[in-house]
Structure formats: structure tokens, C-alpha cells
Write a structure and sequence with these properties.
Elements (H helix, E strand, L loop, with lengths): L2 H19 L1 E2 L5 E2 L1 H11 L1 H17 L11 H5 L3 H14 L7 H28 L7 H8 L4 H18 L4
């Protein structure tokens, strides 16, 4: 890899970490990680994947890059770790559409977000509900998805604005 590309990937990884630190606590904390991941993927394909992978690797290695300044494999294995795993899947959904029109990129962003919801919600249900006699999937959806729908739609829109403005500058 060229030095310029390596620096770009590093900067994008730091951008995700900075957005993760902007957190509103809750059972599933509200962060700007999804905004960062979507904006990065709209900026450019493979480097976006590498930036997300570096971000996850830094967190696993012990640097406090996850929400709430947390780190370690325990975060990935915890109740909200599925969302971070979902971030690693988003490039595979968004990459095929990156050279297509704006509408295709919007749809791929929404599909990527839904994928994060699926991974995160199922993992949350598995971790949070394991050991309980009764499983209430509606409660899980109310905690993991419903409160985030409108803010995440706003994040998709903002990711487009930001990525369009800085695309030519990096």
C-alpha cells in the first residue's frame, strides 16, 4: 500500500473512534459510529473496509475506541458487540453500489444499516436473554431498533452530505 492510502485508512479509523466516543448511554447506547461507518463507505470502498477492520482491531487490542471509551474482546462478546460485527459486513453490502447512482447508494446505505440492526439485535437477544426462561423479542426490538430508526435515517442523510463535501479533498 502507498503511504497516502495507509494514512487515509488510519484517519478514517480514528474518525470512527471519535464518533464512537459521542455516546448517549442506554441499554444500547446511541453513538455516531453508524454515521462514521456509512460516511466512510460512501467515500470509498476497500479503504472503508480496511478502516473499519483497523478500528475493530484497535479496540480488540485494548485501545479505548469503542463507545464509552471501552475496549477489548469483551465488548464484542457483550450485549452490543453484534453491532460492531455488523459494521464489518456493511462494506460487502455497499461496495457493489458505490459506482452507481445516488439512489442506489442510498438504498445500499439503508440495507447496510438494516444489516447492522439484524446482527446487533440478534446478538443482543442472544447475550441479554440467555439464561432467561421467557424470551420477549418485542422487548428486544423496543430496546435495540425502534429508538434508533429516526436518528439513523438522519445519520444516513448526514453521511451523504459529509461524504459528498469531502470526497474530493481526501
Amino acid at each position: 500500500m502507498k503511504v497516502k492510502r495507509i494514512c487515509k485508512i488510519g484517519i478514517l479509523s480514528v474518525f470512527i473512534a471519535l464518533c464512537a466516543w459521542i455516546t448517549v448511554p442506554g441499554p444500547v447506547p446511541f453513538t455516531l459510529q453508524t454515521f462514521a461507518v456509512l460516511a466512510i463507505m460512501l467515500l470509498g470502498g476497500k479503504d472503508g473496509f480496511f478502516a473499519i477492520a483497523v478500528y475493530v482491531a484497535l479496540g480488540i487490542a485494548g485501545l479505548p475506541v469503542f463507545s464509552g471509551f471501552r475496549s477489548g474482546i469483551g465488548v464484542l462478546l457483550g450485549a452490543t458487540g453484534g453491532y460492531i460485527v455488523g459494521f464489518l459486513i456493511t462494506p460487502f453490502i455497499m461496495l457493489p453500489f458505490e459506482k452507481r447512482g445516488r439512489a442506489a447508494r442510498i438504498i445500499s446505505s439503508a440495507a447496510a444499516l438494516v444489516t447492522c440492526y439484524i446482527f446487533g439485535t440478534l446478538w443482543y437477544a442472544f447475550v441479554y436473554m440467555s439464561g432467561r426462561k421467557e424470551f420477549d423479542f418485542l422487548s428486544v426490538l423496543l430496546a435495540c431498533v425502534v429508538p434508533f430508526i429516526i436518528p439513523d435515517i438522519i445519520k444516513i442523510a448526514l453521511s451523504f452530505v459529509v461524504s459528498e463535501r469531502i470526497r474530493n479533498k481526501i
